[in-house]
Recover the amino acids of this structure.
């Protein structure tokens, strides 16, 4: 069964159709990618799926429930959690504290409990602390847990953002251009983390410019161009697809060139 099922999803801004009648099914357990040239509508699509932008038309179902008009916090609470194209860490907090914030979004208590500190809250806090360290070890940031998050190199900030998103226990993790601004070594580290969290059971939907990364790790790829889905298939099918090659040639970048 599809964990995420999108039908006829459309977004119009004034005269421009940014996303045009997209149908997409993301199977539970898959590592799915949405690619496309600049301005193809990827970010708009993501913003609608995660509740940051209301669709003009169409429906979005997650785990069998209609989430089309749900608020973004309700969508996250249902298990659909996203990261952002630009890293958004909490400044002035350590690496570990940034992950702990992610847990608090998913645990009970809130501000009142933090002030009154009942015993269940203290137990929960100790648990959150331990689990934050586990997640940091998982993404390879165990050694820098107590550093100021702002001082991390950019590649590590992106891994931290993934760890924080995982703290909210997503069933579907949306990654918005996770490799943007990373060097080859950092991209490899990120690719391994994404594959491993997927193997452990988290379904992943990523949008990405880096064609080489996508064709290496995704099970299935959908290609957008001018707001429309022009192709969908396995990485091998997508690399050979004439419409995809034409779309990327139009953007002066071929899948093969992006590979080099
Ligand atoms: N808030 C908005 N108002 C008007 N037009 C918008 C708005 N947001 C996006 N667009 C337009 O919609 C189209 C799709 O943009 P979108 O950012 O979704 O594409 P993208 O594939 O994510 O591009 P990129 O890879 O450059 O981020 C573009 O033509 C863009 O200019």
């Amino acid at each position: 069964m599809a964990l995420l099922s999108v039908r006829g999803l459309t977004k119009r801004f004034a005269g421009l159709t940014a996303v045009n009648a997209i149908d997409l099914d993301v199977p539970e357990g898959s590592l799915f990618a949405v690619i496309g040239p600049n301005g193809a509508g990827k970010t708009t699509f993501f913003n609608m799926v995660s509740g940051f932008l209301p669709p003009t038309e169409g429906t979005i179902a997650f785990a069998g429930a209609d989430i089309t008009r749900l608020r973004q916090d309700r969508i996250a609470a249902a298990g659909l959690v996203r990261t952002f194209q630009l890293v958004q860490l909490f400044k002035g907090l350590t690496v570990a504290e940034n992950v702990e914030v992610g847990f608090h979004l998913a645990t009970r208590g809130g501000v009142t409990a933090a002030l009154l500190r009942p015993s269940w809250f203290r137990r929960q806090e100790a648990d959150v602390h331990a689990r934050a360290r586990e997640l940091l070890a998982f993404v390879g940031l165990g050694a820098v847990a107590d550093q100021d998050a702002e001082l991390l190199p950019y590649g590590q900030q992106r891994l931290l953002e993934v760890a924080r998103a995982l703290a909210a226990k997503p069933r579907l993790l949306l990654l918005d251009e996770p490799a943007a601004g990373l060097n080859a070594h950092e991209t490899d580290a990120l690719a391994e983390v994404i594959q491993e969290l997927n193997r452990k059971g988290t379904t992943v939907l990523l949008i990405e410019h880096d064609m080489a990364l996508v064709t290496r790790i995704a099970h299935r790829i959908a290609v957008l161009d001018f707001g429309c889905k022009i192709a969908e298939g396995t990485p091998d099918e997508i690399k050979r697809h004439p419409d995809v090659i034409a779309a990327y040639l139009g953007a002066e970048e071929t899948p093969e060139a992006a590979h080099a």
Remarks:
- The two ends are 36 Å apart (CA to CA).
- Strands lie at 2-13, 16-27, 31-35, 57-62, 65-66, 80-82, 172-176, 203-207, 220-225, 228-233.
- Residues 13, 16, 18, 36, 38-44 surround adenosine-5'-triphosphate (CB under 6 Å).
- The mean pLDDT is 88.
